[in-house]
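[Meeting: bench + compute handoff]

Bench side (C.D.) handed over the final construct sequence. Compute side (W.E.) agreed to return the predicted structure before the next meeting so the bench team could plan truncations. Sequence as handed over:
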Amino acid sequence: MIDAVRTFIGGSWLLAAREQARAAPITTVGLALAVAAVVVLLLQSLQRILSGEVEAVVRYAMLGGLAGFVTTAAGALPALVLRSIPQKLEDSMLGMAAGMMLAASAFSLILPGLEAGEQLMGSGGGAAAVVVLGMALGVALMLGLDQFIPHEHPETGPCGAGHERCSRVWLFVLAIALHNLPEGMAIGVSFAQGDLKVGLPLTTAIALQDIPEGLAVALALRTAGLSNGRAVLIAAATGLLEPLGALLGVGLSSGMAIAYPVGLGLAAGAMLFVVSHEVIPETHRNGHQTAATIGLMIGFAVMMTLDTTLF
């Protein structure tokens, strides 16, 4: 932990970040624009949050984020007794998680965003433009964080500015943190208008897919050399990013009317980036593409059914 903190606050990380910025100027500019947009959206809704106007919305979002934390922790618990699970089964489970995230992005973020955007802009084209703008900001944010935050991808190894000074364990932890943050943001954004028909399906999808993810993270940490108990505790702790992200998501989308469809698009873009950049490549790197793809289709179908029939 100390090594990770030193990496973030030390001059070596700042130097590595500057070098990374020079090497990838377009990504750097995109991250700067995305962060600026996030700050503006947060500031314009801060007054409503502090005044208590959206107290119920914040409560829903925090409960949704806590659900993600609880299921992540529950998923990690079997690692106390399991040494491993078959790789094919793990890839299938992560594929199912990817399918649920894809369906949640489409049905619980993009479609409500288009509906809200059309009411605001008065046309389908205008609605699409607003949501696409949000998606672009979400992708730029995650791509920039991927470039500047030290972490490790199982398929490509360590990456991000200053990764040389982080232990492999903390590279894993930071990678999962980058994964969980947009999930929490999506939960917060989905409850921003107090519409349970949007928030509940998305929270259900994220909570369910957090179970296999929690187990996968705990097992990976054990492989990296941690004891059973420590691996489970750290895997569970990564789920704390979800309530924090949920609070951020509420702040992004609780102000101006246009903030809601933009926020939904931003959360969708961030989640789609994670699915394409992290989850699907991980499920395909061990030669179990068919099993992972079937899992993805099952996850998508389950989430689509939940979204369209139960809520």
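W.E. noted at the follow-up: The first strand starts at residue 151 and ends at 153. C.D. will use this when planning the next construct.
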